[in-house]
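Reader question, answered in our methods column.
A reader sent in the components of a multi-part assembly and asked whether the whole thing could be modeled at once rather than chain by chain. We filled in our standard form and ran it. Here is what they sent:
COMPLEX SIZE: two components
ENTRIES:
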Amino acid sequence: MKTLFCLALGVGTALAQTSQIESCASCHGPHGEGNPQMGAPRLAGQPQPYLERQLEAYATGRRYNEVMVPIARALTAADRAQLAAIYAHLDAPPTRRSAATGATRGSPRARKLATEGDESRQVQACENCHGPGGSGFGGVVPYLAGQDARYLETALQEWKQGRRDTDPTGVMPQIAKRLTDPDIAALAAYYASLPPQASQKTRPGASQGPGGASPR
Amino acid sequence: MATRLKESDVVILGVGLVGTILARELTRAGLEVVGLERGEPRFTVPDFQAPAMHDELRYSIRKSLMVDAAKETYTFRNSSAETALPIRRIQSFLPGSGLGGSAVHWNGQTWRFHDADFRMRSHHDQRYGKDFLGKQYTHQDWGVAYADLEPHYDRFEYLLGICGKAGNLQGVKIAGGNVLEEQRAREYANPPMKEPYGSAMFRKAAASLGYHPFPSPSANMSRPYTNPEGVTLQTCVFCGYCERYGCEHYAKSSPQTVLLPVLLKDPKFHLRTHCQVQRIDLDASGRRASGVTYIDGQGREVEQPAKLVIVGLFALNNARMLLLSRIGTPYDPATGDGAVGRNYTYQTLSGVQVFYDSSVNINPFMRSGANGTVIADFVGDNFDHAKLGFAGGAYIGEVMSHGRPIEFHPTPPGTPAWGSEWKKAVVRHYNHTSVVNVHGSSIAARDNYLDLDPTYRDAWGQPLLRMTFDFPENDLRMSAYCTQKATEIAKAMGARQVAGGPRRAPYTVTQYQSTHNTGGTIMGADPATSVLNPFCQCWDVSNVFVIGASNFPQNASYNPTGTVGALAYWAADALVKRYLKSPGPLV
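And here is the structure of the entire assembly that came back:
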């Protein structure tokens, strides 16, 4: 547990040294706030099951990223669960870029897609699943608000191009395929401009803390 | 003075499931089609989007998607000795209003009837002897057989992308599907939905008692599906807001999600909303329809001449439209003569609550309209009625469509109906209670019928439809028998306590039961006892076709929509292949 905390927070650990894994913090920031320069997503306060599933997906090939795949493969299932729990319970300030654009609420087109959808493309509102204001929903639907714009755009493109297979319902690929590239860019900018979420521990109905994360 | 418009090839009354199917088939055959819808245009985006669509007070309690009873409703009485009064709040059944009709707010349970259902009278006579129930029952044959409808059931199910598991594929029985169903030509369009925990416990209990559980067929999608029209549905996310709601996810089959995107692009189809049809106009002979007259959204009277009239309204309104238009002979319960309004039937529902210990989490909120596990062992004539003293039956199953906070408050018998003890009991039982449903048939009885009310009128000055109905003794016996079977299964589900009972008379319109109103414009082989011939064509006015659950001579154990869809394609097939080549009576 202690080593995983260290791995997450990047304070130099035996695990990181022995297995040549860079610490999570070197890309995702000391508080899990993400890194706009690298397009590394914000992790702080994402639901634990969601984060754990993504790590699993990197390990098993359902999602690809050249940095994340070797890291996820080197972790045990228990490590992945614990790391996910740590980030779910972190609070982090907005990154400078997302905070700076806090006043821009995105284009009218992005706002319409986010809150209402587009009947002509049979695309429902993002917020049906991702919650009002992109706040996330339940354990497996991530928040979008305050997420890094470059990351969001990349993620939607991965869905659109069939390079990501982490939605067992198949809904996200359907939606992404119907979005144009400008739609995707506009949505990414819109959600990046919204204020990020509080951590799991400070939200209503939150579970106990990293140690309290229950196995699925 | 009515504005008279240019004649159309076809005018369709009601742009719901039937209306869109017929419009699609007839425009494809090259005809100009006008679709008249009394309600609003509405679409998945923006009208059904969350979080507004999850407003339970607005949609479930105030019933925003239903007909506005202040403008148009029905009058009701239990027997002809009583004076019927208007239903001021829509409660026991839910007629939808607006584009897409009731197929917007339905749950999505999509079934095929049995061949014995279509031949109920002759089948009974053959198996049990003539009039084994007594002469007060007026159930009869439909004039079509299951084999006639099978290709049309198939087409309808593939249009909607029904999810299920076949139990009888071309005569080969398949364990895990409904082995008691009639044979189907091919597998369902999509695999069944995931089985919820409560349903799994039902499955094990039912199997342990020797029954044949299988997944309930659903129009809620188990995976993305592109139908033969090229329209794509998406996967259901188990949000628990199906019945009384539109689906925000494009995951429930409805005209909006299976056909309208194609139909609305067709230049031969002309949709007109806010059109309140007053009557079908007849020519001087009274044997031929010349078109319809409606009041538009601005209150103007409009005459739409047409060569062919398709009536695809909510079942009760199909009967009312023929009565208002003086098509056919109204039924007279005193003499038994006349057919319009005859054999009005319903659905006989009951349920059993299954209360578990707090360690068993049912998660009722994580459900979908037609999601669950059922048995057909007590459906229709799947079991021997010779010594039972009733006909018909019920499917029994754990099909909890939702656990919505205002509507779902299971408490065991003896709990106070309000106050702190009630609140404690709701908290204790909300997540630890399952429900076993008993979805039963309804037999036609001489005293149950529809006619025009002599007193009350709608906002346009037209007489309301009067419903005269109570549960026939046959159906109360059926419910007692089948609910007892459901209770036995519920006890085998490992519950701490089981509570429930059969349906009891009198029928009341102040408690939700079922939207399945059937009969009133029934089909059959004999013009003396039916309104429509076996092709859904009016015996008396051959250029009027009526399609809906109003065509059922009596109601079966299953939900009606699958059979309504099959009748729509069956009638469309007869229209395109035969009627259009030589307009006139098809029989």
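What stands out: Chain A touches chain B at residues 115-119, 122-125, 127-129, 132, 169-171, 174-175 (CB under 8 Å). Chain A is about 45% helix and 0% strand.
Send us your own complexes using the same form.
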